[in-house]
Every structure is written in C-alpha cells, then in structure tokens.
Amino acid sequence: MTSRKVVILAALAAAVLVLSAYLSTAQATPMPQTVTVTEIPNDQVPLYFQSGRIDLHLNPWALPVNIVAQLQQNPNLTLVSPGMISAYDLLFNPYPSNKTFNPFAYRQFRFLMNYLVDRSGIVQQVFHGLATPMVAWPGPFALKSYILIVPFLSSYNIHYDPTYVNASIWALFRQINQTDPVWRGRILWMNGKWYYITPNSTSPQPVTIIFFIRNDDPYRYQMGLMFSEALQSLGFTIKPIYGTLTDALSTVYGSNPADMGWQIYTEAWSITPTPWDTGAGASFCASWSGNMPGWGEPGFWQYMNATIDNITQMVSSGNFTSLEQFEQMSETALSDCFAEAVRVWQVARSAAYPIVNNLKDFMPSVLGLETPYGVKFAYVPGKNTLTVGMLHVKQFPWSPIGWIISMDSYTADDVLGWLFDPFMAYDPFSGEPMPYRGAWSVQLSPNGSAIYPVPPNAVVWNATLGKWVTVGPGLMTKAVIRYYYNGTWLGTSWQNGQPITMADVLMYWYWTFDLAQGAPDLGANAQNIGDLQGALQPGVSTIAGVQFFPNGTVVVYSTYWFPDPNIVGSYYAPYYTWSVPWEIYAAMLQAMKDGKLALTRPEARSMKVPQVDLTASDSAKILAGYLANWSSTGSIWDNGSWACVPGVGCMLNGTQAAQAYQAALGFYNQYGHLFISNGPYILKSLISTTPQSAVFVLWSGYPFNYTYWYSRIFGTLPSVPSNPLASVVGLSPTTLVVGQPATITATVQGVGLPSAYVYVANPQGQVVYSGTVSSSTPGQLTISLPASALSVPGVYTLNMLVYTDKVTVPTTYSATLAVVPAVTVTTSSVSTVTTATTVTSASTVTTATTATTTVAATPGWVWALVAILIIVIIAVAVLAIRRR
C-alpha cells in the first residue's frame, strides 16, 4: 500500500512539473497589444518591408512575380507556408438573348474556349512558372474527386489550339445560320470580322463581347488581355471593362444576366483544399448554390442544368449508400459541369507568405497562413504591435448571415485571423475538416443505411408554428453527431464580457432552420430570402431531429451520410456564420423584417436597402436602436420561442436578455460597431475607404494561448516545417523506347513517404497509363510503365499529383517524355554487329557479340551523333575482321 502511495505521489509530482512547465511556457509566450492591418498597393510592398512598416503580408497570391522576386532578395525576409489555395477561371454569361447575339449562349462555343486558353503560356508569361495548368474543377483542390474524371478530361486532349477553335466556330456558326430559330441566316463574316443582324433589322452589327477584366489583380489583368487578343484574332470585337472587385460586385454579380452587361469575367478564388468535393461541384456548377449566373436572385434569368442540380442536391444531402455510388454521382456531375463550360478554368497557384525573419509563433500549413491559427498569435520580439499588409482590408459588408452566400477573402483574413475562433477548421496537412474551438463525435452507419432510431423527444424547428416541436416515434437515421460546446464556448465569454450560453447556441440552430423553411416570421420581406433558403434547405432537410442539453451538448440525428466521420461532423458544425451573440442576430432579423436592412447582397438589391454591416456606423446605429428599445420594453425576438425547447425548458429569461442588450450597447458605445466576437483581439477601428486600414486590440478576457492551440492542432510534433508541401525535384529518365517497358524515378521533397496519382498521355492526348504509386523509401517514387503504354513514338506527357502520407494535399507536376523508336544497326557482312557499351573515341570502341541490340533514338543532333558512331563502328569492325 505504501509503495502504491509513493507511485501515486510521484505521478502527481510529475504531473505538477509538466503542468508547471506548460503554464510557464504559456505565460512566457507574448502577444502583441495591437495588430494593425493596412491596404498596400502591390508595387509598394517591398518598400513597406524595407522601411519596417510591415512584419508580414497576408495576400501573397496577389503579388506580381517581379514583386516576389524583389522580396526574395531582401535578406531580412523569409517566404513561408506556400499553400495551393488560388484558382483562376473565366466565367461566361450564357444568357440566350434574342436582341444581341451572344455566342456564349451556346454550350459548344463555351466549350471551345478550353482550347483558346493558353494555359502553358499563362504559367510561363504571367506567373513565370509559379502556377500549374488547371483544366477542370476540382483540379488539385479535391484530389480524390478529381481522379474520378481524369480519364474523361484526357479524352478531350485539352490544349491551346486557336486553329482548331477557328475552324470549329465556323462550323458552329454555319449550323446556327441554318437551324437556329432566332439567328438563322443572321450571322455574317465581313472584312475579317463576325457580324450579326438583329431580328426586325437589316443593319449588320459586329459580334461584340463585353469582357470585364479585373485591373486590381496583375495576374487577371494580363490573363484578360491574352484572352482578349485571342478572341480578336478570331474576328470578334471586344469591349473591355476594367474594374475592381467592388465594381464586379455590381456589374457582374449584381446584375441580371439578361441585361447583357457582361459576357466574360476574370474570376479568381481562394480555396481550401480538401480530400473530397463532397458537393460534387455544387459550388461552381449548380444553380442552387447561388454562384451561377442569375445568382439565385428572384426576377433574374437563371442558368440551370437539371442533371447537375439534381445530382449535386442528392450528393450534398447524403442521398447515397456507398462510397462507390457517391463516386459515380460525382463523376457524372463533375463531367457534366466540365462539358457545360460556364466556367473554363485556367491555372491553380500556390503562393508563399513573406514575413520578417524574426516573426515568432506563426503556424504554417499547406493551406497557407490565412487560417484560424496561422497568425493569430504571431509576434515580433520587442514589438508591442504586429503590422500586417494586405491587398485590401475589406470588400464585402460584415454580415454573418450573409456570409452563407458570399464572403471576401480579406474579411475572412480579418475575422478568422484575429477576431474570431470558429467551431471547426481544416487540418493543416490534409485539409480534412477537424474540430477547432469545439469538439464532435460521430456514430456512422457502416453501409449508409438508416440504423439509428431518433428519440421521440428530439425536436426540429417548425417555422409555420414558430416553435420547436418533437419529432415523435418511428424515425431512423444514418448518423448521430454530438457537438460539444461546453468548455470551449460555454464557460467562456464574448468580447463584451457576457457569458456564452445555450441561448447563443439555440439562436444559431433556430435561424438555420427558420431561413431554410422560408422564415415566415420575417413577414412580407420573407419573399426576398430565396438565396438563403436555397443555400440552407439541402442541409437542413437532412436533419431528422436535434437534442439540446443544458450542459452544452447538441445531438443531431442525420440522414446525411459519408464514409468519413469528420466530413459528417463538419456538415452541421458552425463556421464564421456563427460569430456574434444571439441578440445581434435577433436585431439583424428584426431589421430585415422591418425592411431597414437586408441580410445578403441579392436581398439588398431586391429590397433597395443597405445590406447589414456590423462594422458600418449606419447599420450599427439601426441595430443598436433595436437593442435599446428591447432593453426598455423587455422584448425578445419572436417572443423568445426560439429559446424554449420542449422537455428542456427556456434557456433565456427576461433578466438575461436585458443584461445581453446592455452589454452589447456598452460595446457599441465604446467601439462604434457591433462585431462582438470571441477571438483574442477586438476590432477597434476599420476604415473601408482607400487606403483601407483596421486596428485590432488585445482582449484580456481571451481564455487560450499559443501553446494551447499548437498542442491541439499539431499534437506532439516538435516543430512545423515552413513548407510542408511535397514537390518533385527530379525525374529520370525522360527518353524512353517505344514498345518497351520503362521505369522512371521521381525525386520528391516533402514530409513523410511520397505517393502520387500518375497519368500519362500519348501524343494524341489519350491516357495510356494511370494509377497511384507509393513508396516506402523517403524522397523517391518509382513509376513502372508497361510496354503497351508506349506503343507509338512521339512526345508524351507525364502528370503527377504528388503528396505524402503526412501531407495529403497534393501539388501538381508535369513533364514531357520523348518516346523514340528502337534503332537496329547492321553491316553488309554476314554477321550483325550491334553496339551495347561505351564509345569513348574514334580509336576506342567496345563491341558486343549479341546478334542484335537497340539504341534509343531522338531527333536532331542525337541522330547526327548516332550516324557518326555507326560509321566509326562499321570502320572498326571491318578492320577487326581483316586483321583476323
């Protein structure tokens, strides 16, 4: 017994020592008192670093190549954490106008644009090699989904071929002239240009393409000019519009496609890579997502494709029973999306982040530094202020519900970077969803069948009745997800000092259900929320019931299924749309109901009122007015019905509501805005006019620190490499012999054991080999090509999506292989002489005694060398025979 006590005491002593060491480390980790974010023109970034005015730049994907080169020459800077997070495409307006001839209304014309995008030229001329061609979504951003369509994509042999495009356009326009009900006989070729004659007219007009080219992004500007020149060379008249994101929000995303105010737009995206695209392309292909022309706005013409919409809705709601079925559905939807070509993808790009050499406590990842953990605790020793440069600080209004539809990258950097901790995030090495400031556990049906009974006392929100109702007996589901808010949410506070409570949790689940059902409690203005309803309804429809427990546990009974439990867990987990207290959401909903503010940009256009912006003085004043009124009257939004759960009780009372209103008003009076969140920094000021800037001040009530988050994210990993992505740095051999098997060795840099999905295309663009290769040898991959894959001579293309067992987000690599015919060397003598070993000079030749051999042959100077060697070999052979 005594020895047992000694062991226990020793263990306790060790635990105390470990805890003391942890706490001392945590306490010793400093944080800046202030973070300042400044909008900096790209050409000024090197000067800002050189003069010490910034410590890091958070939008490296916007920096021109020449600026990156200047930064690389600065010995005080390091480029870290390159992430494959940027993709560029051309968006087309497919509206079939009967007044203006729009060639992009024809799917065949849009698809031909794949052959008019010079992806290799863009990589070399625009990005100077720092990008990779991207033919279709999802490219490298969802490796497992992309592999499904590689054979389909390769069958089209997508490459830059303006001659083919020109001939195909002529054929298409001939067909239109013969059969089109509107434009029959009205398309003309005159004086080297295309013209059309509108119905009820006899006057030809040039086929004019309105091309919105972003001029605030040097890459998109150059790509836009290249594509304009390509179209002009085919006889089209280009009417360019040059503008910024703000301009595009109205001209492109804020307009009815039927108005024909634009026909092409240079799009770019910041994308978090994940293993799967669980929506099967919904975000970039389905009309219900709100990202296709028409934008889901009532009264606008909408692009729609029934097959894509139906499949993506089924996939997004988990309406499949096996991974194989999901793969089949994804393959169909993604292939159809590629064929529809409303978006033609150009390139994907990874970019490294410039930081000063002595920046501490940043957390690199394959997702870059623009993550909830990337720079939240970063500091420079000896400085109380962290200074950050960005291309912009803000472009969209800060409307947490509106962020369901759209959120700009700069706002995301501000909010996720310093002001807010989300419930979930993405794994720094794989992009896999993971709990962040929260936790979940998932029970998952092994075969996608509904095997879990839903407790009869579980509830759903009934928007018509305006209350939570029990679901009753007899329901079964495919998954049970438990979300744990206690400890990381409950038990902590908002930045105004108010405790985070179950009322905050219930408000999020209430408005998610309510908006998905049309939100009748918004009165007459409920008719304007079609965009939100369309975005939320597919997910909400998969919830069979919910249980809310006062201790902070929420249990969701779900018909959504996917074989990865983390994907299922993340499906309902709150992200940045749940970032402020319940009373702020209540005020936003009241302002929407009263027609004073709209929740989203499309709603704002329909209602002709401003969109909610918690950082804007006008919006904040309106919302603060509601809070003040409720504080004096004791009112609660919807009479507080959303906070009362059958069998559990009401989780909000009048006293608590009054305290919440007063705390929010106190925050508003101090800071002049209502973005009250839970992160380590409070928004002190934000200037949204150029030059934009923001100031964040350290919040003393934040309960966590760098050490806590590092341990939670990286575990026991002692350090994180500044560049975790895998890359191919060598390939050999690159000259192969036709009709013979070949072994190619790729040298790979990266963390862990390398793997790759490899596919090889022959000179005709047909995939002759594909498969996944892996290695147990660090830094080396072996690719074995069968003889059947090398059946004809010519230039082959080897493509690799490279990753490791530790870092599963891939990088792309391409190389050309010269497949040459075998050469048989013979003499006029009876015997056949063949070369098999080294020729060192004309007088030193080694011959072999085998009957035949083959030598790999290549064009040009190699042929000349072979000819010389043959002459030398024949001469020596004759001499040898005579001397015998």
Could you characterize what this model shows?
The chain is of the alpha+beta class and 884 residues long. The protein has 4 domains: 87-348, Dipeptide-binding Protein, domain 3 (Roll); 422-676, Dipeptide-binding Protein, domain 1 (Alpha-Beta Complex); 727-820, Immunoglobulin-like, CATH 2.60.40; 823-883, no CATH class. The chain contains 22 helices and 39 strands. It has a 6-stranded mixed sheet with strand order 4-11-3-10-8-9, with helices on both faces. The chain has a 5-stranded mixed sheet with strand order 2-12-1-27-26. Helix 8 (218-233) links the parallel strand 8 (208-214) and strand 9 (237-243). Helix 6 (143-154) packs across helix 12 (323-340) and helix 19 runs antiparallel to helix 20. The longest helix is centred in the first third of the chain and has 27 residues, at 2-28. The chain is globular, with a radius of gyration of 31 Å. The chain starts with a helix and ends with a helix.
